[in-house]
């Protein structure tokens, strides 16, 4: 009798094959979030450009390997650099990634490919002899993983459920960034304010020659080469609750803090949210610069972000009584969110030294043709032509001058110029 009950209990635990398949399909579907996008802008100078591309594929023809790209380019001294970067940066990044990589390997290789793509884009644009420059905030969303690369002062923030706001970029403004000021002066540049008649200094800190307020950009061939195109890169993995990205040019961030921008559009769908952020920036500061915003909602399949309408206005007397209680609640909520660990940081690096950013290459940087490949511009090199990115490096005593990745002579010269050194290096034989 007992054995019969055991058999009956055993049969009750069995799950039909169809149910198992359905469960697996549901689990696979849950791995891929929905992405909702909104974009809004107000033009003042006509130098802001943006890119929204949702149909990229890691393996061409395989829709299961799709990912999305979002970017904002804020030009200065003309729009040529912003247009060129919009048209070429994505392709340069993808060309720096080896084919045949699995998704996890691809994501791990992405930070280095972003560095190579930014430097190649800058090198190619400067070869045209045009003097304009641009910031670049470049975002790749692959399922729940977000990878952001940026130079300049456009910004990307992440707003997660519960109100935790994370900045995924670093502003490369000389006025605010002490480390960048020290790097520029160590590389041979001078940092100071604009001098006027009488010796008075006005305006933000600038780099001379050129007078640029930024320490990193693409283009700007009329300033010192210590203004580098090497991006700060951050890669994070969201929880299955998702989150909202707000990517915007400094026309937004000069008017709103990251928290203000996130709060101003909570509870709104992506398109209305982008419009609201621009509206709030204009209300706060007026149209003094090009103002561009992209909102990207990364949400679980078949779900929407919870609708949290903006708080209704209360009179001052009610505000007085409720203010302390609200602050206490917000503090408790922040502690709970920290414990949950909503965002997992996978990678973060902001060094402006190319050798540090390209790392060590154990496969000696050889292409399928048996030739060496320049880690930046991806051209084939004979073994005698390749110059190790570590050759002559003073930043890592463990680096070996014959260890890859390798650079062509032009890219090696550019690397040395960015570091304020004369062209040098050890040939690989």
TrEMBL record:
GO MF term list: metal ion binding; protein serine/threonine phosphatase activity
Gene3D superfamilies assigned to the protein according to its UniProt record, in alphabetical order: PPM-type phosphatase domain
EC numbers for this chain: 3.1.3.16
Catalytic activity: O-phospho-L-threonyl-[protein] + H2O = L-threonyl-[protein] + phosphate; O-phospho-L-seryl-[protein] + H2O = L-seryl-[protein] + phosphate
Pfam families: PP2C (PF00481)
Enzyme class per UniProt: hydrolase
Superkingdom of source: Eukaryota
Cofactors required: Mn(2+); Mg(2+)
InterPro entries, alphabetized: PP2C, PPM-type-like_dom_sf, PPM-type_phosphatase-like_dom
CDD domains in alphabetical order: PP2Cc (cd00143)
PANTHER family registered for this protein in UniProt: PROTEIN PHOSPHATASE
Family per record: Belongs to the PP2C family.
Protein name in UniProt: protein-serine/threonine phosphatase
Species, as recorded: Cicer arietinum
């Amino acid at each position: 009798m007992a054995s019969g009950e055991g058999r009956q209990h055993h049969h009750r635990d069995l799950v039909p094959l169809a149910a198992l398949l359905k469960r697996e399909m549901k689990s696979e579907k849950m791995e891929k979030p929905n992405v909702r996008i909104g974009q809004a802008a107000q033009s003042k100078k006509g130098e802001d450009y943006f890119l929204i591309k949702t149909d990229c594929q890691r393996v061409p023809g395989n829709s299961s390997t799709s990912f999305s790209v979002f970017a904002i380019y804020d030009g200065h001294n003309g729009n040529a650099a912003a247009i060129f970067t919009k048209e070429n940066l994505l392709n340069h990044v993808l060309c720096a990634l080896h084919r045949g990589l699995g998704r996890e390997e691809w994501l791990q290789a992405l930070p280095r490919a972003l560095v190579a793509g930014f430097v190649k884009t800058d090198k190619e644009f400067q070869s045209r002899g045009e003097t304009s420059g641009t910031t670049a905030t470049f975002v790749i969303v692959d399922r729940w993983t977000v990878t952001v690369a940026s130079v300049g002062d456009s910004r990307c923030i992440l707003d997660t459920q519960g109100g935790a706001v994370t900045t995924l970029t670093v502003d490369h403004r000389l006025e605010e960034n002490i480390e960048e000021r020290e790097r520029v002066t160590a590389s041979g540049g001078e940092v100071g304010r604009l001098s006027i008649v009488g010796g008075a200094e006005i305006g933000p800190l600038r780099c001379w020659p050129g007078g640029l307020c930024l320490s990193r950009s693409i283009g700007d061939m009329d300033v010192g080469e210590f203004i580098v195109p090497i991006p700060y890169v951050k890669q994070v993995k969201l929880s299955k609750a998702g989150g909202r990205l707000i990517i915007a040019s400094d026309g937004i961030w000069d008017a709103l803090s990251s928290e203000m921008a996130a709060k101003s559009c909570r509870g709104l769908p992506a398109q209305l949210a982008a419009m609201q952020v621009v509206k709030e920036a204009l209300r706060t500061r007026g149209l003094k610069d090009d103002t561009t915003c992209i909102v990207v909602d990364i949400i679980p399949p078949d779900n929407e972000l919870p609708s949290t309408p903006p708080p209704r206005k209360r009179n001052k007397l009610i505000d007085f009584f409720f203010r302390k209680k609200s602050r206490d609640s917000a503090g408790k909520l922040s502690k709970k969110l920290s414990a949950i660990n909503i965002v997992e940081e996978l990678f973060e690096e902001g060094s402006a030294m190319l050798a540090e950013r390209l790392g060590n290459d154990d496969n000696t940087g050889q292409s399928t043709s048996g030739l060496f490949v320049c880690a930046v511009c991806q051209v084939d090199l004979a073994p005698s032509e390749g110059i190790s990115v570590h050759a002559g490096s003073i930043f890592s005593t463990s680096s070996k001058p014959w260890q890859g990745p390798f650079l062509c002579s032009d890219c090696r010269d550019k690397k040395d110029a960015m570091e304020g050194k004369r062209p040098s290096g050890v040939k690989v034989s």
